[in-house]
Each structure stands twice: as C-alpha cells, then as structure tokens.
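Researcher: Next sequence.
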Amino acid sequence: MAVYLDNSATTQVAPEIQQTLMEVVANYYGNPSSLHRIGGEAEKLMARAREVAARFLGVKPDELFFTSGGTESNNLALKGAAFQYQSRGKHIITTQIEHAAVYQVCKALERDFGFDVTYLPVDHNGVVSVQDVEKALRKDTILVSVMHVNNELGSVQPVEAIGRLLKKRRKVFFHVDHVQGVGKVPLDIKGSGIDLLSISGHKIHAPKGTGLLYVREGIRLYPLLHGGGQEGGLRSGTENVPGIVALAKAIRLAKENEAQHIGHLLKLKQILLEGLADIPGVYINTPLDKRITAPHIVNLSCPGIKPEVLVHALEEKEIYVSTTSACSSRKDQVSRTLEAIGLEGPRLHSPLRVSLSIYNTVEDIQYFLKTLRDILPHYQKIMRV
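Model: Next structure:
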C-alpha cells in the first residue's frame, strides 16, 4: 500500500486530466501559429482553455499568460516588472520565507542588476505583518512580492490586507505566488488588488511543465524570452497546447470542487494533528490556528533524528514524505523558513513535511501515524543529529 504524502512537491495527474491530455496530444498536434486548419484548431482549443482558466480565476482571458510552471511565472513577474519599471525605482519588498523561485530571483536582482531588496521577517507562525510591509515602503519601491501559502509551513499570508494597502500606492505592483493556494485557500484575485500572480499546474493534478502568470490589464512586463512573439509577445516559443488544456481543466476542477476538497483536507489534517500530538518526541511546526494555515500542509520535527533517515525509513514502509521544499531537500542546509520562525537546535535540524491531496484517505493517515509511532523509538535510541 503506497501512501504518497508529498503533494506540496508535486501531485499525481488526475485520471480525467490524463485522458484529456492524451486526446489533445493525439488530435490537436498543430502549431497554433500556423495558418492552416490544423494549426487553427490548436489555436482555438488553446483560446478556449484560456477562457476557462480565466473564468474560474475571476480574471480576463487576455490577462493570462501560459508558462512552463511556477518558477518561470515568478521569474517573469519579478524580473519583468523590475526591468520594465526600474526608471521609477529599484526597491523591492519580499519576505524571508519566499520560495526559492522568488527569493533567489531577488538575490540575483540585487547581485547582478543593482536592485535593493528588503526581506521582511515573519512571526513565529510564519506570517508577515501588514504593518511591516507599510513601514518598508519607500519612494523608490516598485514591487512587493508575498506568497499566498508557504510551501513548507502552510502558513497563509494576509495578501488581501496587503493588497488593500498597496492600492493606495498605484506605482507599487503586488505579486503573489499562489502556487500552493489554488483550490486549497480561496483567493479573490481582483478583489485583493493583486497585479501579478503565479500558478503551477503540477501542484493541482496537472502535468509538470505547465503554469501561468496573471498580469493585470495595463501592466507591461519586460519579456524573458524573445522569439516568435507568442503569448502577446511576453513569452515567445511554440505553446504547449496539451499542457495548457490540462492546466485549464485542473483549474476548473480545483475551483468547482474547492469547498468539498477543502473539507476533505481539513478532516485528514485534523486526524493527522491529533495523532501526532500523541506520539512522544514529535513537535508540530505548522501554525495550529486554522485562520492562518492551509488545510494540506503539516510540518513537524523529531529532534534527535536526522530527517533524511526518517524519510527513508518511512519509504521502506511505502510512505512518501519530504524534509523541506522539494527544490531544496537535496541540499545540505537548514530550512530558511524554519530559521525565520525562530526554530533552533535539534528541532531546526529535523523537519518533516507531510502534505495532503484530495486522493489521500483516512486510512492513509492512520497508516502513517501507526508507522511513525512504531519506528520512532528505534531511531530515538540509535540516532542523534
């Protein structure tokens, strides 16, 4: 019995999306830029997919630009805005716990292009203060980038309140990394005053290599890719029509079933948290306040045990979890996010992340809890960080 609990790293492609993907691969193989009928059919299908995604996200179709995933969308949002509007100023505000696809972009903008970036702290729950955002604003600030849901802790940032604040500063753009929030934490994109927003397909049961960037009407970005001028000149390159259609369907399914899916995830998370509380030597790092945490992520520590040892021990029982972000889990370094919330010592060096999907069951959680309870005493005796 394989129990996959690493859904913040990637998700399995939904069966109905697999079917759609194969149908498009087989029947819509034309280049959407071609003038003939086969190309035109692909272009029309892609246009319908854009309309579907826009309708369920509550935005206009011409405000969506398809990309290869969250990393590209984040790079395009930050670099595109920074390069396009640097004449206004070269100051950017973000947080200390952003995903590497934002954090490292900011570091590159500082190092290579002379931008000044403010990295705001977070509280012990991993939540940034709106007041800190306001205090950090300067005359030369051009961009604020704050993720919606943290990929390690599951903490939810006050993006609506930040958006209201920034509406008063028309020359400051607001970017939100929404990769972990789609279908799990509702977000009114237009109502929150968001200017730029990133989404990744493989976090919502679409295939890898799919994503999009929402760009509010009227905003111009400097493109990262130059070529044939696809995606309104913002993202050149022949479009991935099967992936785009699959992404649009994944967004539709996530939004249509959002309330049901959230309810299911909350039920599983509650069982998980209650079970972990009964296991000696386990500490919960994720916020317990439901108002500021997503329903699908639980971060925990088992001080005294190297996390990679537990990952492989659980793997032997066909349970699959991770240590930190999948983008950083193979690097020998502590979590920047856990450091930011004040963890230190053995607890900082022993994190596990359990992340749920709609396909997980109560039985999955019970099996994980039983297995963890069974194997922990052995490793607590023989292992030390």
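Model: Residues 15-253 form a domain with the Aspartate Aminotransferase; domain 2 fold (CATH 3.40.640.10). The longest strand covers residues 91-95.
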